[in-house]
Design goal:
This protein is mostly helical and about 280 residues long. Helices cover about 75% and strands about 0% of the residues. The protein has 14 helices and two strands, in the order αββααααααααααααα. The chain has a two-stranded antiparallel sheet. The longest helix is centred in the N-terminal third of the chain and has 34 residues, at about 1-35. It is found in: Cell membrane.
């Protein structure tokens, strides 16, 4: 009977194990193998074991400059989405009283996600372009004498696009953490004479650390690997690690792209481990 129950546990875990192996472990293993392959102009994959793909990644100054730009994007987007996500989640959790209204507002937040990422990014062009709505408004108000050129095809536009795409991924885990907070703690803080800001800083923020950490992991991981936003809103004038890998793939340079991808994966894992040191995300799982 005990042996049968042990086999039952293995069988229950089998579907998830197969999904993990087929859709995660196997692709990663293939990328690792390809990263050590050789390549030539007319032969894109030559089975071999060479290290120069990784040597090129680590010896090129362009790699470090690209990573610095991507880290800067991560830091700016993380800070903006954290402020926006925390504020919106706070409003939904503590000021919207009915669950129905909370669901309606969440659905409104997801409306932009009903279209593809490319369409959402292209939608910014008529707004931020030289003859876009923002420039027309600035000219009409007399704020500037000529159209502002850096609104589009710049790092500013890329950050705007990232914030548009990933703020929701910060809102949801923080909102989930806030809904788990015992409301009697807030009443106790108020009864003890704490102001609204002191209650937020000393009670709500510490209890939301797991949600903030999960949201930060989502945002950082996606910004590090994103290349569509940089392509559309950067206009070929902004670099990122994801864009560099996409460019290598477009030139059919699969081994260096695989090596670059594995380095990026290692960097993202290190960042996630660093974020998990600040909070125990298992409380939210």
């Amino acid at each position: 009977m005990e042996r049968l129950s042990a086999w039952t546990a293995y069988l229950q875990a089998l579907p998830l194990t197969l999904i993990f192996l087929v859709f995660f472990a196997l692709p990663i293993a293939l990328v690792v193998v390809v990263s050590f392959f050789d390549y030539q102009t007319y032969q894109i994959l030559i089975p071999d074991f060479v290290l120069f793909n990784y040597e090129d990644v680590f010896s090129s100054s362009v790699t470090y400059q690209t990573y610095l730009i991507t880290f800067r994007f991560c830091l700016m987007v993380w800070a903006i989405t954290l402020v926006l996500g925390f504020t919106i989640a706070y409003f939904l959790a503590f000021h919207v009283r009915t669950i129905t209204m909370q669901i309606v507002l969440f659905l409104l937040c997801t409306i932009p996600f009903w279209t593809s990422i490319v369409i959402r990014m292209i939608a910014w062009i008529p707004l931020l372009g030289r003859n876009g709505l923002v420039n027309k408004a600035l000219l009409a108000m007399g704020v500037t004498d000529a159209p502002v050129e850096w609104l589009l095809y710049s790092e500013f536009a890329v950050v705007i696009g990232y914030v548009h795409l990933y703020t929701l991924f910060m809102i949801v885990p923080i909102f989930n953490s806030m809904m788990r907070i015992d409301r009697s703690l807030l009443e106790a803080a108020t009864d003890a004479g704490a102001s609204g800001w002191q209650t937020v800083w000393n009670v709500i923020v510490p209890l939301c650390k797991p949600g903030i950490a999960i949201g930060s992991i989502f945002v950082v991981a996606m910004v590090m690997g994103d290349f569509v936003t940089v392509n559309v809103l950067g206009g070929g004038q902004v670099a990122s690690v994801g864009k560099a890998i996409a460019a290598e793939l477009s030139y059919l340079q699969f081994p260096p792209a695989a090596a670059n991808s594995m380095v990026l994966l290692g960097v993202v894992i290190l960042l996630i481990m660093l974020l998990m040191r600040f909070a125990d995300v298992r409380k939210e799982l």
